[in-house]
Amino acid sequence: MNAMILAAGRGNRMRPLTDHTPKPLLEAGGRPLIHYHLLRLADANIRDIVINHAHLGEQIEQALGDGTSFGLRIHYSREGTALETGGGIFNALSLLGPDPFVVLNGDVWSDFDPGALRLAQGDLAQLVLVDNPPQHPRGDFSLRAGRVHDTGTERLTFSGIGLYHPALFDGCEAGAFPLAPLLRRAMDSGRVGGQHHRGNWFDIGTPERLAQLDRFLLRAPVAQTSPRA
C-alpha cells in the first residue's frame, strides 16, 4: 500500500508564518509537521510516499530528500499552481499505482494508525472521522454501522485521513477540483466506509492551533510524539 501527503496548499490562514516557509515544514513539538506523518507511515510499513507541493515546494524537497533518512521512498508530484485536494490526487495517480492508497492532509496531526485502514469489498473510500472541533461544530458526514453518509443529524468531522481506490477518480480530468463531490457521489452509491477515531487529532489551520499542538506535544509522552529519535 502506498500513501500520499497533501502539501500543496498556500496556508493563507497561517500567514505570515507561511510567507517564507511551506506549512508542512512549520514546527510543533520540536520537529516539522510533515515528519509526524512520515514517521507514522514508516511505522505502519507503508514505504512508498508521494508528496505534492506548489508553494515553496523546493524547500520540502530539500528538507526531506528521497526519504532515506525515514526508511521511506519519497516521490514528488510538483504542481505549478495548487490543484486542490481532488486535482492534486488525480495528478499523482500514476505515482500511486493501481491499488488503494492512503491520503493524509498535510495540515492535520493525529495519533491514528494509517495501517489500520482497509477497504470493504466494492468500496471506493474508507474515511476517518473525528469528533467535531470547536471551529467546525456542524461536522461533515454521518457514520452509521460503519458506512459514511452525507445525510443525518449526528455528524462527525472528516479528519483529512482516508484510503481511496483509484476508481474513485474515474471520469475526472486534469486541473484543479475538490475531493468532496467525488466522495459524496460515492456515498450516494453506498461505496464509502468509515471509522470514528476517538484519539488525538488536531486541525492545524491557524497559528493559534499550531501553538496548541506544540504545547500538547511538548507535554506528551515521548512515545506518543516521536516514534523515532
TrEMBL record:
It comes from the Bacteria. GO terms for molecular function: nucleotidyltransferase activity. Keywords: Nucleotidyltransferase, Transferase. SUPFAM superfamilies: Nucleotide-diphospho-sugar transferases. InterPro entries: GlmU-like (IPR050065), MurU (IPR054790), NTP_transferase_dom (IPR005835), Nucleotide-diphossugar_trans (IPR029044). Coiled coil: none annotated. Residues 3-115 form the Nucleotidyl transferase domain. It holds the Pfam family NTP_transferase. This is Mannose-1-phosphate guanylyltransferase. It comes from Thiocapsa imhoffii. The lineage of its organism: Bacteria, Pseudomonadati, Pseudomonadota, Gammaproteobacteria, Chromatiales.
